[in-house]
Amino acid sequence: MKSNINALGNWLMSWVQEDGAIHGFHNHSVWGSNPYRWADFTSGHSTWASPLMAALSRIVAEQRGSSLEEQALQMIRLQTSRFQEDGQYMHIGFQVGEMLNRGLIHNMMPNVALGLTALHGRSWLPAEAMASIQQAMLRNLQACDEIYPFKKTRNISNQEYCRLWGKLLYQQLFQDSPWREHIQDDLNFMIENYHVIGIPDEDCEASNRYLGDSTMVEPAEYYGLMIAPLVQAYEMFGEPHYLQHAGGLCRHLARSAWTDENGQTRFNRKWLLRGGEWIRLKEPMLIAGMGMSLYGIARYLEHQADEELAQFLEKCDETYAYYQTPRGYMASATGWQNEADIAPCAAWHTHDFYYLLHRHGLVEKMAPKLKEPYPRISVLLGDQCMWVEEGEHWAINDYYFQDVYKLIGRKDEAVFGRDLGWVGGERSLPDHLLFPNQPVFIKTDEGIYLKADEQTAQNIDVSSIADLPYLGLWE
């Protein structure tokens, strides 16, 4: 089984705005939160979605196309120009929404993405675009060194490694790096103070999540932010211990994985220390969002052959394909029993898209297909609710006579809302937000049915991760 990379890219581009913003329902399928849960209702740009820039930069480099080239440049212009007064990027709240305007990792991810964008785009990016990337990365990295000083705050491993990855990329791309003298010392500090040997066996290395806290290690989805900079450090400095430690982190991922009830290979949630013994937690855990960790393994395999890790990548590719819908997005997670299982996060999906392009390469004539309209209604059924989208409209809807969610929005809007039209008055949403063609599904004791006529049903793609079977039309 192979993922449809073209369909995933097309779905992601349906969230991209003319000004370069990447909209989405920013559902954090690892922590189970989203702006709806925090009453923020933001569906606008998120810096966590920035790897899409790097993916488009590569596509343009290999399949030159004027419309996609301009779109990629506009995304660069947006990400390199929207700053807060203190030098942090704007739109860093992700699953919390615009109420959150501080945090290290959501500043660091766009720096990595901008660096990768420049690496892929060196053959075609105009000088002014390269200059804007250089200036933005330098400004933000220096600002965050002041706001979140290394070794002096409650440092989180993946965030510090992501900071170092951005600095390594900057040093590779530009001649004026202010971090040349101490970046290897910082990398060695991370290895010495965070890495834990022996989880789940002596060939593996995990990473403590917090400096000085040895009771938990990082969740699996963040390991790519540690592996990739170690591989890059090996390439830049030629010291083999960086690659060796990267390999230990890779094996931790592969040997901590588990097989779900559908026979698919899944990332573990994390390991916790209890009574001197490490306990693995499996769920609830993401499906979409494995991308950067798998990218890290793929980068390691470029330097060190390893059949076990190669097979792990193949199995995870099959997991992507199994949980991918015809529209291109994947089920987000399992185990939450709420919207976190089914609501696809455009931001996480950009990480998967970047990895899948890296691993499998471009589909022939990919660039012009990324913006083609999708003519059908797409539905993903979950146990408690469903994701529905058609054109610019999207919804997290309820089963018939289970009125819990009723969230609706548009891909071209920076906010979404709850459909309270039945209440009336000022609580009613503007007409342009309403989603008039939402299909109705009924959940019974024996299964799930679509309440529609046969002609309407022919225009609906139905996928399901619900425990109850989907049984077709309610007749």
Automatic annotation (TrEMBL):
It comes from the Bacteria. InterPro entries: 6-hairpin_glycosidase_sf. It comes from Paenibacillus roseopurpureus. This is Uncharacterized protein. One of its GO terms (biological process) is carbohydrate metabolic process. SUPFAM superfamilies: Six-hairpin glycosidases.
